[in-house]
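Tokens in:
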């Protein structure tokens, strides 16, 4: 009895040389990139607020 396992995609179950086929990998990476963009946007907003605070505190120092 052959116990050889067929390599299939763990996401869609289609025959694949890798554990995740190219189309599923692209889909997952696309989602990950979308999440990353969201996170980067939030970080950017946060850093802009921080920058604004720093600029204001520097201006206050100069005035004194
Ligand atoms: Zn797949």
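Residues out:
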């Amino acid at each position: 009895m052959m116990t050889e396992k067929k390599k299939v995609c763990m996401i869609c179950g289609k025959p694949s040389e890798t554990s995740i086929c190219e189309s599923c990998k692209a889909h997952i990476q696309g989602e990950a990139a979308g999440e990353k963009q969201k996170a980067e946007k939030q970080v950017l907003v946060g850093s802009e607020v921080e920058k604004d605070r720093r600029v204001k505190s520097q201006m206050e120092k100069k005035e004194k």
